[in-house]
Specification:
The protein has 379 residues and is mainly beta. It has a single domain, classed as Methylamine Dehydrogenase, Chain H (7 Propeller), CATH 2.130.10. The chain is 10% helix and 40% strand. The strands form 6 sheets. Strands 10, 11, 12, 13, 14 and 18 form a 6-stranded mixed sheet that branches. The protein has a 5-stranded antiparallel sheet with strand order 1-9-4-3-2, with no helix packed on it. A 5-stranded antiparallel sheet has the order 15-16-17-19-23. The N terminus is likely disordered.
């Protein structure tokens, strides 16, 4: 081969080589944009419930932003519907995540909201999100193409079969809950959802970059509001967090127990029991849970389908020595929390040094993208 052709070949290969270890350039075969989560390097993790896989995608969105202003879009669904050629009544947002480098917000969207008939249904029960949108810190909205991007992926072992009916939501399939949330910490991706095991509630862990087989664990918790041990209900929202120098998963379930799961117990194939540390109320499911800092201190904020925003101090969790193992009368027990006004707030994401980004259903029926001042949440 002539030297000039060799140099051209090397130059061409360098143009198409992925920057992240293990990544390739192409179009990921994503069926449903069910769950979104960023790591600190600006890599977007996408949980695909229908495909039973986790994707890591480099969107080349790495221009740092020092913005400390909030962002408000009072008619988010109207603006999205105009882009997608549908009506606001059909636009449904499945998840929200913010790139910590650029402060660009990303939402996964479907045209399925008109199907919503039960307060217990989640967006993933109704439709597969197939559109990814970017919202800049100034409020500009654009569609994100996933063609010819840098990505890698890993399959989760034994996700619940597509044909399994939901036990009490008519017409829904459990496969929508194959992946319910994603957490990233210290080079490990944590994935909650449902499997085909006898005890369906599961937690999967994978090292990132994706190099090893995914580890699988089944979960069991005591639900104080129901007065029984449960193994079929998935974690709805969770955070990896260090409590008393031990990595834990702080997890919330339907109706609404708060549980700590010792991450050191997540050994492949092991059945793991969580420690129930609080009951926050029945008739509710957690929507989202985030950690944020204010004045150098960590706080945990959780949005809910029927309860207000719940704010709690992780130190209170660390200092709680008990465990709920008996039925709770009145549905409230354990770790204390602070209810904060937040009717209609759904998705949450840490936005910048001063604000949390959230979606909120307003009294006029419109869905707004709003900014919650961290100082207001907890001075």
């Amino acid at each position: 081969m002539r030297p000039i052709l060799t140099l051209l070949l090397i130059f061409t290969i360098s143009l198409v080589s992925a920057k992240e270890p293990g990544m390739k350039i192409g179009t990921p075969d994503i069926i449903s944009l069910s769950v979104l989560e960023f790591n600190s390097d600006g890599i977007l993790f996408i949980g695909d419930s229908k495909g039973g896989a986790i994707y890591a995608v480099d969107l080349n969105d790495n221009e740092a932003s020092s913005n400390e202003e909030g962002l408000v879009i009072p008619d988010l669904e109207d603006k999205i519907s105009a882009m997608l050629g549908t009506t606001a009544e059909n636009v449904m947002i499945h998840d929200l995540a913010v790139n910590p480098i650029s402060q660009n917000a990303y939402v996964s969207v479907s045209r399925g909201r008109a199907k919503w008939a039960s307060r217990w249904e989640t967006p993933n029960d109704l439709e597969d999100a197939s559109v990814l949108l970017r919202i800049s810190p100034s409020g500009d909205i654009s569609e994100v193409s996933l063609e010819n991007v840098e990505f890698s992926s890993v399959q989760i072992p034994n996700p619940v079969d597509p044909g399994v009916d939901h036990e009490w939501i008519k017409g829904a399939k459990l496969r929508a809950n194959a992946i319910t949330d994603i957490g990233f910490d210290g080079g490990t991706v944590y994935v909650s959802g449902l499997s085909n095991e006898e005890f369906r509630a599961s937690m999967w862990t994978a090292s990132y970059p994706f190099t090893d087989d995914v580890k699988a664990n089944t979960l069991e918790i005591y639900h104080g509001a129901h007065g029984e041990w449960e193994t079929a209900s998935p974690v709805r929202a969770f955070l990896p967090y260090e409590l008393n120098n031990q990595k834990q998963l702080l997890a919330a379930y339907l109706c609404t127990p708060l549980v700590t799961i010792d991450a050191s117990n997540l050994v492949d194939g092991k059945h793991v029991k969580g420690r129930t540390v609080a009951e926050f109320g029945s008739g509710n499911f957690p929507i989202d849970m985030i950690k944020y800092q204010n004045n150098g201190k960590d706080y945990i904020l959780m949005s809910n389908s029927a309860l207000p925003l719940l704010l709690f101090d992780p130190e209170d969790v660390a200092n709680y020595e008990g465990e709920i193992t008996e039925k709770v009368e009145g549905y409230l027990a354990g770790v204390k929390y602070t209810p904060r006004s937040g009717s209609g707030i759904q998705q949450l994401a840490d936005f910048n040094a001063k604000y949390i980004l959230a979606t909120q259903r307003l009294p006029n029926g419109k869905l707004a993208l709003i900014s919650l001042p961290k100082s207001w949440l907890y001075p």
